[in-house]
Amino acid sequence: RYGLGWLLETHPQLLDCEYAINEGGGIGIDFGGRRFYVCQTAEKGVCWLRVRTRGRAGHASIPTKDNAVVHLAKALTRLARAKLPMHRTATVEAFVRGLARGQRFPASLLFPLVLNPLFEPLILKSLPAEGMIGPALRAMLHNTATPTVLRAGEKTNVIPPTAEAEVDCRMLPGQSVESLLAEVKPILGEEVEVEVFATTTPYEGDYHTELYELFGQVLAELDPGSAVVPFLLTGSSDGRYLAARGVKVYGFSPMKQEPGLPILELAHGRNERISVENLLFGTRVLYEVVRRFCGLAPP
């Protein structure tokens, strides 16, 4: 047993605090001619599924329509093509409206229409093809279900009796395992067995606090013209352990976007890295935030 979850279970007195600064946000995104730093105040929950299909085993030289592998492939194709319903959260609404305020007319008026299911596809399609804003925003407005692991058969010439996949589902704050399954199961079909084997709870925190306001004040000084907007993390962080205990936790590791160094695309990827300049910038921002929040005199 390792990590923050274990630490909170065994030594909770070490982390008895009102606020916490975590990773998971702080990245600067240049959007519509202005730079916005995202501060994570909410996080999706995890729901990992194991889906299984059954069919008639036999020799591959005599194909049948009752093939477990084909059944699974069709179910996963339906899931990939489906669009799960939109669920608006306070955090994502604030994120969208914050970005919109930094745009010129008519973009300032049109961009918030992404919160309307009727206009969402059109608005997302209008966003720049490069970058991650479009895909990330889509994931912030919907529960998602992504197949990641496949298992079926052991020999090329044998039709297996079962086929199995693992699906990484992420649910928005306000959603539950039950509500997620109600969206996913009808798409997979009645013949598909579904098993939940891991979950975490989504959370949504308060961004109307002294510490959150301080993030924006310090960044406005060190990167003039920039603004801070609340952000919903589509992945997972250790913040969920703190939020469950009532701690106001913010994902905030300040970094500027740099040409040729796409931070979001490098995350958990090959040669993941940041520049020395970004390391120094983030350190300066966090130092000033903590110093002022604690009421300490400048050095």
Structural notes for this entry:
28% of the residues are buried. Helix content is 35%, strand content 24%. A hairpin with a 2-residue loop joins strand 2 and strand 3 (34-43). The chain is globular and about 80 Å long. The model has no long low-confidence stretch (mean pLDDT 93). Strands 2, 3, 10 and 11 form a four-stranded mixed sheet that branches. Strands 6-8-4-9 form a four-stranded antiparallel sheet. It has a two-stranded parallel sheet with strand order 1-12. The chain is built from eleven helices and twelve strands. It folds into two domains: 3-43 and 203-293, Aminopeptidase; 46-85 and 142-199, Alpha-Beta Plaits (2-Layer Sandwich). By secondary structure, the protein is an alpha+beta fold.
In short:
The chain is an alpha+beta fold and 299 residues long.
> Class of the largest domain, according to the CATH hierarchy?
Alpha Beta
Low-confidence stretches: none
State Rg.
22 Å
Annotation field: number of helices: 11
Number of domains in the coordinates?
Answer: 2
Briefly note the CATH topology name of the largest domain.
Aminopeptidase
Give the number of DSSP strands. 12
SSE blueprint:
Elements: H1 3-10, E1 19-22, E2 28-31, E3 34-43, E4 45-54, E5 58-59, H2 68-81, H3 90-101, H4 107-110, H5 120-126, H6 133-141, E6 144-152, E7 158-159, E8 162-171, H7 177-188, E9 193-199, E10 203-204, H8 210-222, E11 227-233, H9 239-243, E12 248-251, H10 263-266, H11 276-293
Parallel strand pairs: 1-12, 3-11
Antiparallel strand pairs: 2-3, 3-10, 4-8, 4-9, 5-7, 6-8
Helix pairs in contact: 8-11
